[in-house]
Amino acid sequence: MPDGSLRKLGFLTIGLFDGADPRPGHETTLEIIKLGEDLGFDSAWVRHRHLQYGISSPVAVLAAASQRTSRIELGTAVIPLGWENPLRLAEDLATVDLLSGGRLNPGVSVGPPMNYDKVKPALYPDHDEDFSYARVERLLGFVAGERAADLEGTQGFEVFSSRVEPHSPGLRDRMWYGGGSLRSARWAGEHGMNFLTSSVVKAEEDGLDFAAIQLSHVRAFRAAHPRGRVSQGLVVIPTDTASPEQRTKYQSYADKRTPRTREPQGPARMLFSRDYVGSSAEIAEQLHAHAAYREIDEVAFALPFSFDHDDYVQILTDIATKLGPALGWQPGS
User: Fold this and answer.
1) pLDDT tens per residue across span 230-275
2) Where is the Luciferase-like domain (predicted)?
3) How many domains does the chain have?
C-alpha cells in the first residue's frame, strides 16, 4: 500500500488544434510533453478524439514525442478499441514502444464508439463488430506475442511470422485499462492489466460520494491484481504563479463544470469529480482528504480541455515545482 507519498507524477493532455491549421496544435502538444520531461514528470498521457479537434492518432503523436524525449513514460488515456483493429494496433504499439526504448504505456477501453449510429457507415459499413472485453483480450494476446495467424517461414522470397511483428518484450506488462465501473476494475485486475481511474465513475449504488466510489474500484482492482499499477486522473489546476486573469479563467472553468458533479449524468449514471483549483497547499490538503487518493501513489493529473499554451506551461510548472513536492513527490532526472 502507498505510504502517503506520491511516487509517480504524470499529466494528461487532449492536444487541441485548429481545424483550419492543425499542425501548430500538434507541435504545441509535443512541446508540452518535452516540457513535462524537463520538469521531471514521470509520465505524459494523451487523450483520444475522433471527428473532433483533438488528437485522433495518439500513437503517431507519441512516436514523434519518443524522438524528442529520452526518459518520460508516454501513455494513452485512453484508446477506445471500438475504433481500432486489435492486430494493427498491436503492430503500432510495439513499433512505438521499441522506438521509445520501452517507455510506452498504452491505455485502452471498450464499448461502442461514441455516436456509433452516426459513424458506423464510415467505420464499419459492411458488418457489425464485437465491442466486448474480448476485443481487449485479442489485443493483449497479440501484444504478448501469441499466434496471430497460421503463417510462418519462407514463401518464395518473403519471410513470415505467426505473431505480430515487431514484438516488444515487456509491453504486455505496461498495458492499462481505463475504467469507471466496479466491473471494469475487477476485469482489469483479473486479466493482469494496470488500471486507469479518472474523474468519471459510474454511480452503481445509491451513494453519490465520488471518492468512496472510486476507492471501491481501486480496492477491487488490487484484490484481483495486488502487484498491478493504479493511476488516478483528476483535474488539478494550481494557481500559485497564475496571473489574476488566469485565476479568474480557471475558476470560471471549474464553476461551469460543477453542476454535473451534483448528481449522476445520463442513462449510465456517470458521476463526475469536482475540479481542484487553488494554491498547491490547498490542493494538497484536499487530496490528502480524498479517500481514493490516500490509497494512490501514481497520478496523471488532467489538463483542462480548452486553455491556452501559456496556461498549460504555468499549470505544469506549478504542479512539478510546488504541488508535487507538497504531495511528497521527487522529480525524475
Assistant:
1) 999 999 999 999 999 999 999 999 999 999 999 999 998 999 999 9
2) 26-243
3) 1
What CATH number is associated with residue 139? Answer: 3.20.20.30
Q: Is residue 1 part of a domain?
A: no
Give kind and range of the element (H or E) at residue 320.
Answer: none
Give the whole-angstrom CA distance, residue 15 versus residue 26: 7
Q: Which residues of the chain have pLDDT under 70?
A: 1-3, 205-206, 333
267 lies in which domain range?
A: 8-245+252-326
Phi-psi region of 252 (alpha: psi -120 to 50; beta: other; left: phi over 0): alpha
235 within a domain of the structure (yes/no): yes
Residue 253 is which amino acid? Y
Contact 300, 8 (CB under 8 A): no
In this structure, the number of other CB atoms found within 10 A of the CB of residue 288 comes to: 13
Q: What is the 3-state secondary structure (H, E, C) of 18-52?
A: ECCECHHHHHHHHHHHHHHHHCCCCEEEECCCCCC
Cβ neighbour number for residue 114 with a 10 Å cutoff: 14
- The answer as to whether 333 is a domain residue is no
Q: What pTM did the predictor assign?
A: 0.96
Q: Residue 99 burial by CB count (10 A; 0-12/13-18/19+): exposed, middle or buried?
A: middle
**Residue 176 · residue 195 · CB < 8 Å:** yes
Task: With respect to residue 214, please indicate whether it lies within any of the assigned structural domains.
Answer: yes
Closest CA to 193 of 324, 303, 78: 78
